[in-house]
Structures are given as structure tokens and as C-alpha cells.
Amino acid sequence: MAVLTAEAGSASAIDAACFGPYQFRIAALCALIASLDGFDTQAIAYVAPTIAEAWKLDKAAFGPIFGVGLLGLTIGAFLLSPVADRIGRKLVIILCTAIFALFALLTAGATSMDQLLLYRLLTGIGLGGAMPNLIAITSEYAPARLKATLVTVMFCGFPLGSTIGGIVSAPLIARFGWEAVFLLGGILPLLLIPLLWIALPESARFLAARPDPERRLTPILKRIDPSIIPAHFIEEVRSEAGGGPIGKFPVAELFRGGRAQTTALLWIAFFMNLLVMYFLVNWLPSLLRSLGLSLEIAIASTAILNLGGVFGAIVLGRLIDKREPAIVLGLAYLASAAFIFIISHAGANVVLLLAGAAAAGFGIVGGQIGLNAVAASVYPNAIRSTGVGWALGVGRIGSILGPVAGGALLGLGWSSQHLLLIAIVPALLASAAVFLLRKVR
């Protein structure tokens, strides 16, 4: 990531270290939290039909429930990521895990739509605040040559958790009722909190700018590489921070020091990418069904889209570590636009349709995960969680608008094919924004 890491990617001891068991443990713990994050994010979608039947509601009544969960994710990313730059990544990760665990448990006892709205909003705040810090701490402990790879692999825990949730929810609901899904989604993260407290370290760069850093940093750095000299590491990190204490940079810092154009382009890329991603995830089955395809094929298309995203994340992560990130992601989004065009014209050709969905997911879903790694690389440590969190927060606004815009255009009489074709536009805009990142950096 030679071009995009000029500011954050110093020749630090951690960046140059070999990838060992300690870094693997950190990435694995973050992936585990991400999987629980993914499970709880999607849980409401799995139980909505059962709740609608039990409460004698129309399924359309769950639109606001889905939307308020995404709103919570947005609020959590905006509010809690700057907090982490002040009090530490580890503490905020544990706090957010406790928040989404607690309100998942409370959701299991909900008896009205108003309670569901409140609990899903608060659950979403915890979920949204956790992810930027998982990305930041994974990136900070990864060797420079593996940063994008480890961040993308870690983030794959999110769709994996969503997939596992889909597998276990049906038998849980059948045997114990819909409440069991939320009970599981709350108990598992609560059980994980003691392990996180013991086994997950605080950000080394964060500790380097705190009082008495050498005492707290020495055991961490020695586990990464015994040859690391803590005093040298501390001096280097403090020089990166410009001599000021970490954690006192406002959000305005994202636009200072020559970062304004980079931040603006990242926000455009996040917004457009998450807009088209959530538009496809939410509307693709319905649009394909209206084109005459079977329900099984329509649902399979979305599963294939997400599966393609997992493979895309791993492949694009490796390419980002070896090649110019802006070119890799820009080409991925450009290709995705072409594959969305293919989906819109596939008609009854199921093979072409599913292949197009897999390839579009490779670029759109996989590209989003790769973009998370790029966002973590372009900001200095002092504002890294803020930078990643606000980029995700802006993107979450797109994730809300995408499904809403799809419904509005359908209401205006747009055809399914025209809706799929319009989805090409945000993919092209995301591609253009990422390509421009190469110039401004």
C-alpha cells in the first residue's frame, strides 16, 4: 500500500515485524467479535416473519425496524469512534460489545413494535461503534506487508456471522421461539467480554502517547519481537503525533494537514459503495422475482452475491498489499458496474445471472471490505478510529438511502431492469472517487 500509507505507515517495529502468534490472536479475537456483530445485525431479518405472524402484523411494518437498526449503526460509528481515540480502542470495543449484548437480550423480551424500535436502535449503536475499532486495532498490529489482508480477513467475520445466524435461526425458532435468536445473540458476546479483557491488548500506539508508556508497552512489544526497544518505539510514535497527546484531536482534524481531499473522496466512496451494496442485498431477490425467476433462484442470487464478496475481500486484500490500492479498488468497482449490467440483461439465463451476481459481489462487497483497510491506512494513529468510524458512518447513510430509494423508484413505476441499471451509477461514482484518491495522495 505504498501510496496510501505514506502518513500512517512508518517504518515502525510493528510494521516491520514478522507475523506471529500474538498478532494472529489479536486478529482472531477481532474476527470473533465481528462475527457476533454480523449475527446480531442480521438477527432481526431472520425473526421478522415469525414475529409478524405471532403479533398479527403485516411484514411491511418491519421496514422501520430494519431502518432504525441501520440508523443505530450510523450513530455508533459517528459517536463512539472519536471516543476511542481519547480513551483507547480496547475499552470502547468491550463497551460496545456489552451494549449490543445487553440490548439483544432485552430485544428477546420485547412485546411491542415501539420496544423493538428502541432496542434495535440501541443495539445498532453498539454494533456500529465496535467495527471501526476492530478495523483500527487489527491494522495497527499487522505487519505493513499484510495490513490490508488481515483487515479484510478479519472483516469477513461479519458476513460469516450473518451466514451462521441464518443457519441456526430456523431450528432455534422452531424449537424455542424467535426470542431464542436474540438470547443467543446476547449471551455469546457477554461470555466473550472476560476473554477480551484478558487477551486483547490496547493499541500499542495509543499506549505510547499515554503516561508511563514503557511499563505498559514492554510486555506487548516483547511478545511481538523481543528485539524491539520500547523507548525507540515510543519516541517514534510521539514524533508521528507531532508531539501532542493522542486522543485530543477533534473530527475537524480529518480535514486538516492536507487530509481534506482524501477524507472527502473516502466519504464519497464509502457512501456510494454502501448505497449500491445495500440496494442489491435488499432488493435483488424481489427485482429478480418480478422478472419471472423462481423464488429459490432470486434468494440464491443474494447468497451468491455475499459469497462472492467474501472471496473478493480476501483476493482484493492481498492485491491491495502488493499493488496500488486505488487502482485495485477502482477497477473492482468499475468491473462491478459491468456485472450489474449483465445481471439486468441476464433474463432467464440462470447461469449468467448467478455468475454476474458472484462477480458483482466480488467487487462491491469485497471492495467495501478492502476500502475499510485503506481508510485505516490513510490516517495517523491519533485520529485513526475517528477517520474509519466517520467514513463508515457516512457510508451507513448510503446504506439507509439505497433501499429507501429503491422502494421510492418502484412506487414511481420504474421497472426492475431500470432499477438494476440505475444501480450502476453509484458503482461508477465509487470507482471515480477511489481513482482520484491516487492523485490527491
Rounded mean pLDDT score: 84
CATH architecture classification:
Up-down Bundle
Beta-strand content:
under 5%
Radius of gyration (CA) equals 21 Å
Number of helices: 18
CATH superfamily, called what?
A: MFS general substrate transporter like domains
The shape, in one word, is globular
What profile does the largest beta sheet have? none
Distance between the terminal alpha carbons, to the nearest Å? Answer: 12 Å
- CATH topology term: Growth Hormone, Chain: A
**In CATH's first tier, which class applies?**
Mainly Alpha
User: Oligomerization state of this entry?
Assistant: single chain
Class based on secondary structure composition and strand pairing:
mainly alpha
Q: Fraction of residues in helices?
A: over 70%
Question: Tally of extended strands?
Answer: 0
Following the backbone from N to C, one meets helices and strands in this order, namely: HHHHHHHHHHHHHHHHHH
Provide the low-confidence segments as ranges. Answer: 1-11, 243-247
What does this entry look like structurally?
80% of the residues lie in helices and 0% in strands. The chain is mainly alpha-helical and 441 residues long. The protein has one domain (13-208, 249-440): MFS general substrate transporter like domains (Growth Hormone, Chain: A), CATH 1.20.1250. The longest helix has 35 residues, at 21-55.
